[in-house]
Amino acid sequence: MVKCHLSKLMGERKLRISDLARETAINRNTITRLYHETATRVDLDNISVLCDFFECEVGDLFEHVPEK
C-alpha cells in the first residue's frame, strides 16, 4: 500500500485544497483524491509539481507501507 502525506504537508502550511489547486494549477479533484488517499493513479507531472511546491522529495510525499 502507498500512503500519501499530502494532508500532512498541507496542514503544516495551513493550506486548503482550493489554495493548493490555485497555486499549482493541479485539478482540484486530483488534489482531493490525494488528500483523502483515494487516488489510484497519479500523473508524474503532478508529483513533480507537488515536490517543487513543497520543496520535498518524492519519499516525503509518498510512503510504501507493506500490507500484512
What would your notes on this structure say?
This protein has 68 residues and is mostly helical. It has one domain (2-64): 434 Repressor (Amino-terminal Domain) (Orthogonal Bundle). It is built from 5 helices and 2 strands. The protein has a two-stranded antiparallel ribbon. The longest helix has 11 residues, at 44-54. The protein starts with a strand and ends with a strand.
Q: What is this entry, summarized?
A:
The chain is mainly alpha-helical and 68 residues long. Helices cover 57% and strands 9% of the residues.
In DSSP terms, counting alpha (H) and pi (I) runs of 4 or more, how many helices?
Answer: 5
Average pLDDT across residues?
96
Radius of gyration: 11 Å
Order of helices and strands: EHHHHHE
Strand order in the largest sheet: 1-2
> What characterizes the major β-sheet?
2 strands, antiparallel
CATH class categorisation: Mainly Alpha
Q: How many domains make up the coordinates?
A: 1
How much of the sequence is in beta strands? 5-15%
Gross CATH architecture: Orthogonal Bundle
Find the CATH superfamily. lambda repressor-like DNA-binding domains
Globular, elongated, flat, extended or rod-shaped: what is the shape?
A: globular
